[in-house]
Amino acid sequence: MALTVNSMDSISMHEKIHRRSGHIAVMYKNWLIVWGGYVDHMQETSTSQIQSAYHYTDELWIYDCLSELWERVLTKGDIPPRNSGSCGVLHEDCLYIFGGFHGQTEPGSMDGNSNQLFRLHLCTMTWEWLHPTGEQPTPCDKLAGWVYNNKLYFFGGFGPQPDFGAPFQHVVDPSTELSGWPRGWNNQLVVYNPATDEWEWPRTRGTIPSPRAAHAADITGHKVFVFGGRIGNTRNNDLHCLDLDKMRWSGNLTRPFELNPEGRSWHSFTFITESRAVLYGGLNQFNTVLNDCWLLSLGAGGWDLEWEEIVLPYDHGEPRCRHAACLCRLTGELLIHSGSTQPFYETRIKLKDHAEEMLVINFTPKSLLRLCLDAVLMYEEQLRAEWNWLPQNLQNVLNARLDQC
User: Which stretches of 194-341 are assigned E, i.e. beta strand?
Assistant: First the structure.
């Protein structure tokens, strides 16, 4: 994907927050942190060209799940290059960003896949470019990651061919062979140890998942589950589990002839309890963007698996892929942020190429305070004259939410 950087000042605050693809989102306490990715927008020129631009990487957009307000926060230090398809994981009070795809944005800037690792200290909003020792992972984007026992794990992705003798598989994408820069899908499993600042390459047992990219993974207890992703012209619906205590892969857990989600890439897979995970959206085998919602339940011992398609009791928005999903445990809400929509894959006329609103799926009722704030805003014309009787902090929240609407 060739991306260019144009003036991001030409798009609105709403677009800067919600019009994103290939970005990362993590939950930190009761805040959703959104970073990176790119946006497609129409240039107001005589030819009305469609332009793609990376979002600025020196800024975070932070959503407070309690007040339901967005805030832009600027960062400092070793600002990462603008990119898409990187992997972001949260460990303690730090956000780690690994890999991604950097389009050539400025003279002398990086172009292509990256294996750079950055750490953002959230208490000071300062970036640090890390240079771990050990054998370096292959550059890639569209990978998945998680944290276990104070170590960061990264799996799969799409990128250039590794050096001979790499401890993982790599399948070349035939469409890149004539470019002089062959790239493809891998199944590398690499670990970053913050305590020693080094890369580690764990040895695993069992059947390793095939190379893939744009898959999704999440962890529950000492087990991480990986679903789907693309290799070649195939978008898979296989489900794999890695026992991180035994370092053993399960093999494909998807049972034929049973109710299963269809194969997909660019979806999200998020545990909402220790034994239940939600699969949402993605891009299927026929380049159709999906908005189906599935619940995976883990039975006794975590192996008696059952898929169930969830029919939500309300309209849950237009189909989307390349989105990001996070669970706010404090409110019991699954937040599904931005992503590409069907027109992007049909006509390439990007008049409505991104989801316009954040989808919120509630698994517990809203608090009484949040319900009251919603009601006051709904009947703003009738109640506005009485706002002065409210505590000042509630007035501030109401005014800010009204402004952001």
Answer: 198-200, 216-220, 223-231, 234-243, 248-249, 264-265, 268-271, 276-284, 289-298, 305-309, 324-328, 333-337
Query: Using CA atoms, how far apart are residues 276 and 299, in angstroms rounded to an integer?
Result: 9
Distance CA 246, CA 331 (A): 34
Q: In the 8-state DSSP scheme, what is residue 252?
A: -
Phi–psi pair at 336, nearest 5 degrees:
-115, 115
Q: In this structure, how many other beta carbons lie within 10 angstroms of the beta carbon of residue 343?
A: 16
Lowest mean pLDDT across 57-66, 184-193, 267-276, 350-359: 350-359
Amino acid at 51: Q
Instruction: Count CA within 13 A, CB hemisphere, residue 154.
Output: 32
Label the pairing between strands 183-193 and 198-200. antiparallel
Res. 43: pLDDT tops 60: no
Residue 385 gets the label, from left (phi > 0), alpha (psi -120 to 50) or beta, of alpha
pLDDT of 41 > 80? The answer is no
Q: How confident is the model at residue 42 (pLDDT cuts 50, 70, 90)?
A: low
Residue 144, phi-psi category: left (phi > 0), alpha (psi -120 to 50), beta (remainder): beta
pLDDT of residue 163: 84
Backbone torsion region of residue 132, taken as left when φ is above 0, otherwise alpha when ψ lies between -120 and 50, otherwise beta: beta
The type of residue at 325 is A
